[in-house]
């Protein structure tokens, strides 16, 4: 029998990343990292921590791991800088915080959380967001923190090929955002998404990840969802909110709503990417249109599963 006081947790590490620069030996490392992060999240939820705490903690750990395209491991923009987007949403009261096109912050998801709880706004961008971080006592880190050799090499390769943003959409190899969704034992839902965006993107480009409804959504009455993939596709379809609406308006569970959302994404715009979803009953589901999506989950307190 399913206990309603059970917790569920899901994380993703992007769709398509392994078709990019990754050596096959990174797969084992990535699986291990996702497993460890899920176990840390389990500990929070098991001892009665909130879904919001769990998604912030797990997203921060993913941002700290240079294997993923967020925080430390963010891909670089056309100017060779990490310019990051992140957001967090609390399904209890639909409160949300997000930051876009920011540099110099090690954990953008933590700044998004402060925007939610302390700024009186939902979204801050660029310099203003970084100034707000200073007011919150969040230190700046130097650009060098993000300049890991793989990312520099990856940018050089992309620039050699003279890729434009639309070329990137066509090759579909560049996605590696992180995301996390959780249901705590009180039945509260939360979602977080964080990214460096797309390699060699134009400076100032903002993707779906910090946009409520596109890159994430959380509502206790429906589900929590976090997306990864070609951001412009998720912006145009507002996919996470659409999945939430399938639950709300059609009574679908996480599996049905995710399948319906992915079907729409494919049928209408041949969109590239994927999504992880936990519904109000704690069901875990995922769907993607790319060849792979790095993901792991704990469904209603059961064992940890990781898939690439
Ligand atoms: N969705 C992100 C963006 O477009 C990229 C990713 O998921 O890897 O900024």
How do you describe this structure in short?
This protein is 36% helix and 23% strand.
Give descriptors for this structure.
Glutamine Phosphoribosylpyrophosphate, subunit 1, domain 1; eight-stranded mixed β-sheet; binds aspartic acid; 36% helix; 9 helices; four-stranded antiparallel β-sheet; 308 residues; 12 strands; alpha+beta
Descriptive overview:
By secondary structure, the protein is α+β, with helices and mostly antiparallel strands. It has one domain: Glutamine Phosphoribosylpyrophosphate, subunit 1, domain 1 (4-Layer Sandwich), CATH 3.60.20. 36% of the residues lie in helices and 23% in strands. The chain contains nine helices and twelve strands. The protein has helices spanning 25-46, 51-64, 108-119, 126-135, 149-160, 165-171, 231-237, 239-250, 254-269, and strands spanning 8-15, 84-90, 95-102, 123-125, 178-183, 189-195, 216-218, 223-229, 273-279, 284-288, 293-298, 304-307. It has an eight-stranded mixed sheet with strand order 4-3-2-6-5-1-11-12. A four-stranded antiparallel sheet has the order 7-8-9-10. A hairpin with a 4-residue loop joins strand 2 (84-90) and strand 3 (95-102). Helix 1 (25-46) packs antiparallel against helix 2 (51-64). The longest helix is centred in the N-terminal third of the chain and has 22 residues, at 25-46. The protein is globular. Mean pLDDT is 92; it is low at 165-172. The structure holds aspartic acid. The site of aspartic acid (ASP) has 15 residues, from strand 8.
């Amino acid at each position: 029998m399913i206990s309603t006081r059970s917790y569920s947790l899901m994380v993703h590490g992007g769709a398509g990343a392994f078709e990019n620069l990754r050596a096959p030996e990174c797969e084992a490392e990535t699986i291990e990292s996702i497993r460890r992060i899920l176990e840390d999240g389990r500990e929070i939820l098991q001892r009665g921590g909130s879904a919001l705490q769990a998604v912030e903690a797990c997203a921060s750990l993913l941002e700290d791991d240079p294997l993923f395209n967020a925080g430390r491991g963010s891909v670089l923009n056309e100017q060779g800088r990490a310019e990051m987007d992140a957001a967090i949403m609390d399904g209890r009261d639909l409160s949300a915080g997000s930051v876009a096109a920011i540099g110099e912050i090690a954990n953008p998801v933590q700044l998004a959380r402060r925007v939610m709880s302390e700024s009186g706004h939902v979204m801050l961008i660029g310099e203003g967001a970084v100034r707000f971080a200073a007011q919150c006592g969040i230190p700046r880190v130097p650009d060098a923190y993000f300049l890991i050799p793989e990312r520099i090499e990856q940018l050089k390769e992309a620039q050699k090929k003279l890729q434009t943003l639309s070329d990137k959409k066509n090759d579909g190899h560049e996605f590696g955002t992180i995301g996390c969704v959780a249901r705590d034992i009180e039945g509260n839902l939360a979602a977080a998404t964080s990214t460096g965006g797309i390699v060699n993107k134009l400076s100032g480009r903002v993707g779906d990840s910090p946009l409520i409804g596109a890159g994430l959504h959380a509502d206790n009455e429906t589900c929590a969802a976090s997306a990864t993939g070609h951001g412009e596709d998720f912006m145009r379809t507002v996919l996470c909110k659409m999945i939430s609406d399938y639950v709300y308006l059609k009574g679908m569970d996480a599996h049905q709503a995710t399948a319906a959302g992915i079907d729409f994404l494919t049928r209408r715009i041949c969109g590239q990417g994927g999504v992880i979803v936990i519904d109000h009953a704690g069901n875990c589901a995922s769907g993607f249109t790319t060849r792979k999506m790095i993901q792991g989950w704990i469904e209603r307190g059961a064992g940890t599963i990781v898939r690439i």
